Amino acid sequence: MQISELKNEGLSREYSVTIPAADIDQRVDARLQEVGATVRIPGFRPGKVPLNMLRQRFSKSVLGEVLESAVNETSQEVLRENDLRPAMQPKIEIESFEEGKDLVFKVGVECMPEIEEADYSKIKLTRLKAKVEDKEVDDALERIAKDFRKTEPVAKARKAKAGDVTVIDFKGSIDGEVFEGGAGEGHHLELGSNRFIPGFEDQIVGTKPGDSLDVKVTFPEDYHANDLAGKEAVFAVDVKELREYVDQEVNDEFAESLGLENLDALKQQVRERLEQDYGQVSRSRMKRDLLDALHEAHDFEVPAGMVDQEFEQIWQQFEQAKEAGQLDEEETSKDEEELKTEYRDIAKRRVMLGLLLSEVGSKNNIQVSQDDINRAMVQEAQKYPGQETQVLQFYQKNPQALANLQAPIFEDKVVDFLLEMVKIDDKDVSVEDLMKDPDEEEAAPKKKASSKKASSKKASAKKAKAKKSDD
Questions:
Q1: CB burial class (10 A; 0-12, 13-18, 19+) of residue 105?
Q2: What is the pLDDT of residues 149-196, one digit of tens each?
Q3: Which CATH fold topology does 281-468 show?
Q4: For the chain, what is the radius of gyration of the CA atoms?
Q5: d(CA 64, CA 289)
Q6: Of the listed ranges 13-27, 111-125, 405-419, the one predicted with least confidence
Q7: Which residues on adjacent β-strands are paired with residue 152?
Q8: Which of 348, 376, 357 is CA-nearest to residue 287?
Q9: Contact 92, 247 (CB under 8 A)
Q10: Structure pTM?
Q11: Does domain 2-110 bear CATH number 3.40.50.150?
């Protein structure tokens, strides 16, 4: 085998590889002998078929397999001999090949960069800390109590209004035919909750127990049941009862109904949950600041192919958001080339930070344990009540989905490792300041200096989301 370097620029390498015809013939013969050990040909026992006959019958059919194997093996040898760490799958281009002649092909590869890590102890971050005030605990208790409100029959006869709960029997039909899943008895429907088909609840407002009416609605075009989407339906409705919510008193009895000892225990649990929530927000903001600092502290070339792949994903998300009408006015008014330049910068940042975090994790033997993965799978499964088993099986059978689940766990472990190395100053702030959008905070001073300049720099919702995904 002959290897010649054709290109050595930055992280890009290209080699020309020549495999002699004799080597190809030898590989073909070896493969034919493997075939001959099992193939059955009349007049010959397995393993006793002459090589010449095997060549006549099978040489063309095994040649493609042999060439693929030869290219893969020699490509890996090129990487080993030149001590290369490919960032992506090498690109193979066959230059020339004819039966009985040398095989010549090119191997193009983008290498992983050499990363010189910064002195992390010189990075300074601020950790925002918000104290949980008694009023916030009381407000949270009120929200919990509202979620657990009960209803009771309306004491004085009146018509139903928004916020009431009506107990109804209903039966739906389309073109006079009752459809599956369109009937119910004794159903408690909160008017104004928008849990039924648009327009349904509005027609119940103003009714009273004992009323019967036909509710006419049209199923949304994007309704989950395709056989009903966009169709007009009539529901025969009988109003059985009118109920209204009664306030849930926050006391020891309420706490006990939630499985706690008393009201003080409930307050303590709520306070701890708020502290956890604020801590997560604080960590998220500190992580963002850390990644910004890491980006500023490092300057190394990143593989162009990886940037291209990341950019394509971001641009695809942009196109989908555009088609769905989810872009703001600023984004839609920008020139496409300007947008692509901005998104490519985001892609480059993502790739750079990804490579850096991977390097830190590798050098410091940071690993994701099976217990970490199991916990993450369970958390995902809990998002789909009743389908937990299917979700777990999906991850167990889908390596790519499992890898996608593992990646953020690894990133958080590396971030935690780095946060132990940087200098962190605590700063007490209000809950309002803690919850402020960092993008809005950055835009505010620029807007004071120049509204036009701020407009050009302000991240759109979609662009901000793209950037935050690496934060």
A1: buried
A2: 999 999 899 999 999 999 999 999 999 999 988 999 999 999 999 989
A3: Trigger factor, domain 2 (1.10.3120)
A4: 33
A5: 53
A6: 13-27
A7: 244
A8: 357
A9: no
A10: 0.73
A11: no
